[in-house]
Amino acid sequence: MDTEKRPINSKDLWKLKFVGDVEVSPDGKAVVWVETVINERRNSYESSIWVSRKDPSGVFQKPTRLTYGRKSSEEGSLDRSPRFSPDGKYLAFLSNRSGKNHIWLLDMKEGGEARQLTQGDDNVSQIAWSPDGRHLAYVSREPKPKEDKKSDDIRTDKDVTVVTKLRYKANGTPGVVDPRPQQIFVVDVETGKSSQLTFGDFDNSSPAFSPDGKHVAFTSCREPDRELINIPDLWLVPVEGGEPRKLTDGRGPVYSPAFSPDGSLIAFLGHEHRDDGASNTEVLIIPRGGGEIRHLTGDFDRSVGCSIASDSRFDAGRVGPFWSRDGKYIYFVATDKGFSRLYRTSVETAKVEEVTEILRAPSGAAKSPSEESLSELPSVVTSMAFADPGDAPLTLAFVGGTALNPGDVFVIAGDRLQRVTRVNEDLLAQLELSRPEAFTFKAVDGLELEGWMMKPVGFNPGQKYPAVVEIHGGPHSTYGEAFFFEFQLLAGRGYGVFYCNPRGSAGYGDKFTHMVVGDWGGMDYQDIMSLKDYVDSIEWVDKTRVGVTGGSYGGYMTNWIVGHTDRFRAAVTQRSISNMYTKYGTSDIGFFANKRGMGGRDLWDSESFIMERSPIRYAPFVKTPILILHSEEDYRCPMEQAEQWYVALKRLGKTVEFVRFAGENHELSRSGKPWNRVERLERIAGWFDRFLKNGD
């Protein structure tokens, strides 16, 4: 072990910096992004926008800070979502500096202070420029009627709330969801005057201007059963006003529409398998006037987007689709096993090519200025931006990280790869981290599965170590070559860490992802137990001191495991599921997402199966000491799931503790209050210390 370095500790989390939501100027000469830091004194996050400009030789220079937000704020100053105007003169971004998230404009040519463009009591999101740079489209709530500030659907009168909608709650939204629909608006950049484009009791999102500026494409589900089955369609509305026209027919969800340069086609992300949550997200195109949908990634058999899990990321950026200037290619991010990379597909042939080969095998002119080794180059791309000016090289900017680095901004311009940021370089230089080692193993039915192991920091080959098995959420998430603070903390505390992608994980093809549907607690459980067999076979692991933990679906699986085997010495279950039957009615997604997860089985026709696959049924068989961590405002896996599990285990005399986090929701491990995130990490490590090290 390098004596100048030290193991990571839980409060190092507060020192990390996070980059995300990258954007490229139209001429490819500037790159901007959002940098998020933790203010541990205020127990909050602060984000600002940074820029790097290209010098005459084509090299992007040292980053400088563009925005500073509010000077002081207990809730954190947040600037985000930077978007260049088509001529590059203005940078629009969202900021909470006026108390709500609104659009602000920064003059990139003249400089000076940013000016607020939109007004009002409601937050603004999803901004998009018109081709002439005179307008911005955005999404916000339907304005409250002037004559009556109360809603017709949910009326709040003192302590009374009347609910008439099915989808009335959402994780991250305390109380009930505002019933006013999300509408598309257009604001005049010069005057700040806004006009509403969409109307009716329907949510609308993802506005995108046509190249001629006459129409805005957007997504919306307007079917009568939209509260039961919400499948957004693609719509087109005239900018001058009028009735929207529906272009798709509900065969599958539509996300992120983007017009081709000539305006004849619209690309979007989605699939044509109704509301199937396990299907690959694809790149599709449709004529502007509607008609046949073409699949441009159908034979690729990978899902568009980054599904690689991490607890060290703040990146709300885009993953595509981005059109090349000539309209021949569409660029996007996709997950392939434990990696996510940049790809492009041919509009004519639908042939998919990886364009991040330059990242994994740089040579000659493609080497980055500092000559990074292959191991330091990005293995997980989380978002991207694109500029194809025509008179200059095509520029791809992206956020990429590795298992040893949460993420930085990179740029490919022509044949040159450049690393633009090194936001955590000083901190990482102090830390002795554990490098994950990939391996494969066989499931009980012969299916090959991929996993990773992390040796304890200060590893001595002649010593036996305790170990922890980590289980991801989803179940359609993915573990891979990404930085995971929790894993590094456990390795730094002397544990081996093992994790894998059981059947159901994304990134291994559509068939693999669907293998868990209707079989939670079945072969996926056997996959984790096969991983346990592999762990037990590792010479340096003390197989009598192996723990297990996971969150969300991983928490479900942790609960399921301890009810079916005592092969783990200790367990920590996080934001978990114990009773699938009650979750159907208490979760914000239970009645549709968990119904899908159970293979379409519903409460009244499959009660016995749903309870059979609920961990609480097996509480009497639990022998493993278990710690329950749960957030009180978690509406995805509601607190009642933890309460039921705790009460059942406590009544039965099991070794169990219950830790509740007030004011937190399902995202505690990723974006919870900084002090609570550290508390959570210490609780996890402390429980394993107690039962895997101290012999309790």
Question: How do the strands and helices of this protein lay out in sequence?
Answer:
Blueprint: E1 18-24, E2 30-39, E3 44-53, E4 64-65, E5 79-84, E6 90-95, E7 102-107, E8 115-116, E9 125-129, E10 135-141, E11 156-157, E12 160-161, E13 182-188, E14 194-196, E15 204-209, E16 215-220, E17 233-238, E18 245-246, E19 254-259, E20 265-270, E21 282-287, E22 294-295, E23 303-304, E24 322-323, E25 329-336, E26 339-346, E27 352-354, H1 357-360, E28 380-387, E29 395-402, E30 405-413, E31 416-419, H2 425-430, E32 437-442, E33 448-454, E34 465-471, H3 485-492, E35 496-500, H4 510-514, H5 523-537, E36 541-551, H6 553-562, E37 570-574, H7 580-586, H8 590-597, H9 607-612, E38 626-631, H10 639-651, E39 656-661, H11 668-671, H12 674-693
Parallel strand pairs: 34-35, 34-36, 36-37, 37-38, 38-39
Antiparallel strand pairs: 1-2, 2-3, 3-4, 5-6, 6-7, 7-8, 9-10, 10-13, 11-12, 13-14, 15-16, 16-17, 17-18, 19-20, 20-21, 21-22, 23-25, 24-25, 25-26, 26-27, 28-29, 29-30, 30-31, 32-33, 33-35
Describe this structure in words.
The chain has 696 residues and is α+β, with helices and mostly antiparallel strands. Among the domains are: 117-143 and 180-295, 6 Propeller (Neuraminidase); 433-693, Alpha/Beta hydrolase fold, catalytic domain (Rossmann fold, 3-Layer(aba) Sandwich). The chain has 12 helices and 39 strands. It has an 8-stranded mixed sheet, sandwiched between helices. Strands 23, 24, 25, 26 and 27 form a 5-stranded antiparallel sheet that branches. Strands 1-2-3-4 form a 4-stranded antiparallel sheet, with no helix packed on it. A hairpin with a 5-residue loop joins strand 32 (437-442) and strand 33. Helix 7 packs antiparallel against helix 8. The longest helix is centred in the C-terminal third of the chain and has 20 residues, at 674-693. It is globular and about 70 Å long. It comes from Candidatus Fermentithermobacillus carboniphilus. Keywords: Hydrolase, Protease, Serine protease. Residues 483-694 form the Peptidase S9 prolyl oligopeptidase catalytic domain. Belongs to the peptidase S9C family. This is S9 family peptidase.
